[in-house]
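Possible race condition, two jobs.
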Amino acid sequence: MIWKMKPSLDILNQSSKNTMVEYLDIVFSNIGDDFLEATMPVSHKTVQPFRILHGGASVALAETLGSVASNIIVSPENLQIVGLEINANHLKSAKEGQTVTGKVSPIRIGRKIHVWQIEIRDEQEKLCCISRLTVAVLEALKA
């Protein structure tokens, strides 16, 4: 298991209150020993004018999953996570009215750098987007 302390889905979803994650209706839906999943509806909040999933919404889902995954494997009292780089390949469109599911898995979990792979799939399990997120693990700022 990669998690320092495997959190409940309720705690993850509560931490999203009053954030972009809540606005986009991203909901953490599954947590395994080495992955985390979340769903996002393809709705008026996440589509482009052609009524298909906006690439930026896919990237928001991907970054959310990777950042949260990094945050739950470090000690938040001492360390903080900041994004360094994200990329995304948009492979297939998802239509308005569907729900997509993102799944994050580690590529590398180092002391100073984490690299994550995020796959976003439609309701038929077809790969819509594949993304890679790199984050830095920094000493937490003292208040």
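Job #2 (started ~2 s after job #1):
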Amino acid sequence: MENIMTHSGVIDVAAVIDSHPFSGFQKRLVAVCFLLMTLDSINLSTIAYAAPTIAADWGLSVSNFGPIFGAGMVGIMMGALFFGSAADYVGRRLMIISGVSIFGVLTLLTVTAHSFRTLLIDRLLTGIGLGAVIPNIIALTSEYAPARRRAMLISIMSCGLPMGGLLIGIFAVPMIPRFGWKSVFYLGGLVPILLVPLLIRQLPESIRFLALRKADRSQVTKVLRRIAPEIPITENDELLIREEKIHSLSVKNLFTHGRLRNTLLLWSAFFANLLMLFVFNNWLPAVLRKLGIPMTGAIVATTLFFLGGTIGGLLLAWLSGRASPHRVVGYGFIGAAIATTALAMSQGRVINMMIAVFFSGLCVIGTQININVIAAAIYPTSIRSTGLGWALGIGRIGSIVGPIVGGILLSRGTSVANLFLMIAIPGLVGAAAVFQLRSDQSGADTRKMKQ
């Protein structure tokens, strides 16, 4: 109790979270964030599985879908930048619910698309909702996690990314041939729409955000009692959080107080990783079909990619708990470059390709999951969503460039082997950036709340 009660009548909010056993309330919160990450990933990946069938129905070449894939990435970038920054003003809860509502409705409306242009606009708007969710659920998980378990919990929650890709692959195999491409968009839209009322009733605001923003004291008290019901809290107690408080919420704060170097290196690493990830995410089924692998085999390979990512996310998180996260993520980038090169060299040997795809997913997605941990640790609560949103937003430039350039290269006759060799290069760039990152050394202010 002495760590929680800094002196008579003063309760340290962060100390409550860090010293108290992980409560059922916090476990449910992480589970909800995992579910939201999974739904986000399902909606993100659906277009890759549906594209070959849509192209056939509309008399198009699948290589023409580069702008469609790119439009979704532009939307995600816009959503991450705007909603990430807005969350540091109005809170994570509202931005998460807004994002889920947007991508649920727009995914459902995809079934009404009747032309290339309408599909492109729909994926752009859907992307805005998808981009709103990710930085805020990472921030929310980080701000409810005790310090001793924060890295592992963020990684577990982020495993919803490959899990969504894995699940949509499992659903897409029977659904698209039997019910058509629209069926997966019905699934991807209805589930988040039905989830919104539950989020409105149950999703809490970040307790650290509430404390720093000097919000309604009763909200903080209510959450504290759910985390640690045995701690007595009276009306006269002060609620304190020992963390840096930045009063001017501006993007420029990502570059001040010694953060410039870390911010630029973080952006470089996100750019490199998301370029690699979304070339795989958008083009893997199509390029495997181009090599003569049947649709079922292409979907199985893509499922292996996301299965490898789920395992990789947990493996790298486990290693990060026993070594420097920066070193683990850096070597993860190198592993991604090696696995992608191996994939380029395994053309014509299906078993070798499947193994290389699995390890590419393990390293590429595993690295993405764990770089979120590093990003969440670099910035304080008052600019955490802004920092995460901008890192993901700038990184999305890579996710835009990758699929578009991939489509251009394929349409001009570039071999699949050469495409994968090119994808390996960003892995080395990301490794160089992460190895130079250092922990944030900015000071911390104290914030008190009193009724």
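The chain has 16 helices and four strands.
Logs attached separately.
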